[in-house]
Design brief:
about 70% helix
Length: about 120
């Protein structure tokens, strides 16, 4: 199972990311225009800051725009909870009820048809 941020969370992340990009660009311009000529690593910091903010912003914008988004983690489970496995389990339980003579053949066929119709609808 893949887990991704919610749409509201990504919207907030994108807005904050855009703000941080504008902040980084402004700060970069001030550092490179400074008359006291600060060291290169001080001038490079706002550029790195802006690149990181841009990547965070792109991640959240991708989650907003794409239907399935981008997963930030993968969760593995021991039990499959797909529609097919649930249907299979329901049919097995229904078959067990018929085998124990708790329901008639007619009831079995009606319920089996209803379960299978749920899958295809």
């Amino acid at each position: 199972m893949r887990v991704r941020p919610s749409k509201p969370s990504s919207a907030i992340g994108a807005v904050v990311g855009l703000f941080m990009i504008f902040f980084g660009i402004g700060f970069t311009r001030q550092m490179w225009a400074a008359k006291d000529n600060p060291p290169l690593f001080v001038k490079a910091f706002p550029i790195v800051w802006t690149c990181i903010a841009a990547s965070i912003c792109m991640y959240h914008l991708t989650n907003l725009i794409r239907r399935r988004g981008v997963a930030d983690r993968i969760v593995e489970t021991d039990q499959s909870d797909s529609a097919l496995s649930r249907t299979e389990q329901r049919l097995k339980e229904l078959s067990d009820l018929r085998a124990k003579s708790l329901i008639t053949e007619e009831e079995y066929q009606q319920r089996r048809t209803a379960i299978l119709n749920d899958v295809w609808v």
